[in-house]
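Supplementary Data S3. Sequence and structure tokens for construct A.
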Amino acid sequence: ALKVTGSAGSFDYGILAAEEAGAEGRSFFGGRLFYPAENWSLGAFTTYTKRPFLDRTALVNSLDYEIDSKGLWRLQGQILTSQINEDSVKNSDFGAWYRFHYTPSATWRFQLDMSHWGEELDISDMGYIMRTNLEELFLYGQWTRTGFHESASAASVDWILWMIGRRNAEGTALQSKVVLQRQAKMRSGSNIDYMFMLNTAGYDDLISRNNGLVHFNKQLSGSASYSAQRRGAWGKSLSVNIMEEGYGGWGASLNAGATWFPNEKFNVEFKLNPRWSNDWLIWLQDIEQLAGFSLKQLTGEISPTWFPAERHELRLRTQWIVMKAYDGQGYSIGPRGRLAPVNNSVDDFAMINFGLQFRYRYEIAPLSDFYIVY
């Protein structure tokens, strides 16, 4: 592999090339050119991946820009295209996003996002995108209140309202969201947050694994969370979530975390996340239908970290998940995406999984580290 970064005149540039050995090896190439000006910038990025084992090549080009008024507003965006050639079959598509920030004062902040991701857009050979075949409109507003009396427990409070409208490239209306949040920073250093969310009625075009659209009615959810900075030997956090899910059921989850600091060179992080649901809706590939289950699930993590000497770090991370799904009810996809109960038997199932990672890190110099990971 080879990586080169630098500047030439007013331009910054970067080049990356990597070659994998073996019959399934891939070749990766990436190039970046960036021009920063006083209150605007323009950049271009190209990647090319060659995968002989699949007789596949992937070329992705993008152009990004930013214009900044130095405080009042900022405009950002990107346009990208992909050209895929696999087994002599060619596919190409494009995507684009646009973001406008507006900050008229220290109290108010607004944001507008628009995005389009084509159905055939594919940057997965040397990149990642959450999903394609999607168009979104995002609106965000935030009001910040400060200047509380010295006797008040709150130092500042943010009220946030945001909403997102979604549809796929065929014009099918997907579930949209309206969210109201209150985020309070306390004088003690802790944070207390509340959130209420409405998922509007709409379709889900992913849950059935390309076996048809599924229509969902509106769904409500809410959460309350508390986090405290380290005080003495402990830092802690807790959140409670209640959500309407599945095809008319409810679920709840608890996220509890704590970090113990017996001294400055050693700490242990604990996380525990139980979850309950009476309508956990998933797609079952073996019977090719949807099923709703009652669910009990517990995930957890214990992660000790030790700094035996300057520049040295040892970390052990253990994670596990235990789950049981029972009382399953099968559904078929009916007209207009509505689910209809079926009498097919659906088997209960359970799972236990455990993961462990041990890592040693040595800091050679700032931004230069040596790792051994198991």
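Construct B, processed identically:
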Amino acid sequence: LLRWNHPEMGLVMPDEMIDIAEESGLIVPIGEWVLREACTQFVSWKTGHPKGSTIERIAINVSALQFRQKDFVEKVTQIVTESGIEPSMVEIELTESMIIDKMDIVIEKMTQLREFGIGISMDDFGTGYSSLAYLKRLPFTTLKIDRSFIRDIMSDVDDAVLVETILTMASIFNLDVIAEGVETIEQFTFLERHKCRYFQGYLCS
């Protein structure tokens, strides 16, 4: 998520500014800027960094207000084209709350992005009440398991079974899975044993 390195206030974290940006509508131009900067930076890493060839893709958070703009798909595809990044190396992150309204329009936009070659991930998967239906109807490429389930997989049998189930379902639907909030080697080992390939969290960083 976006951090603002303010010259006087220092580092302003997302929870201090994102809500204000959304309420004011500024999140739309900010989101466009983030998308352009992320794609441009990725191309720079791929071409100018010794280990750039090993980077597979870059995931970019999108706000609900930004996604609901009529020209959202057009703006995304234009920025991706202009930056020179391969569409398959871009992944747009959506949350479940963003896709429960006007499902037909959401499906149309997601389908257009997928046809262009862009991946789409569902962030915080498992926290909503109808996530299973989304797997069938919406063209996601990746699920991100919410950190609240990962945190206790070594001590809570229910969380462990839930994570195993999500990984099994994702395999059936041919989806990638990213485990959020991986902090211990034990969590990592458990997830890897159950064929989770991607991780994020303090252990990785």
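The two ends are 15 Å apart (CA to CA). The first helix runs from residue 14 to 24.
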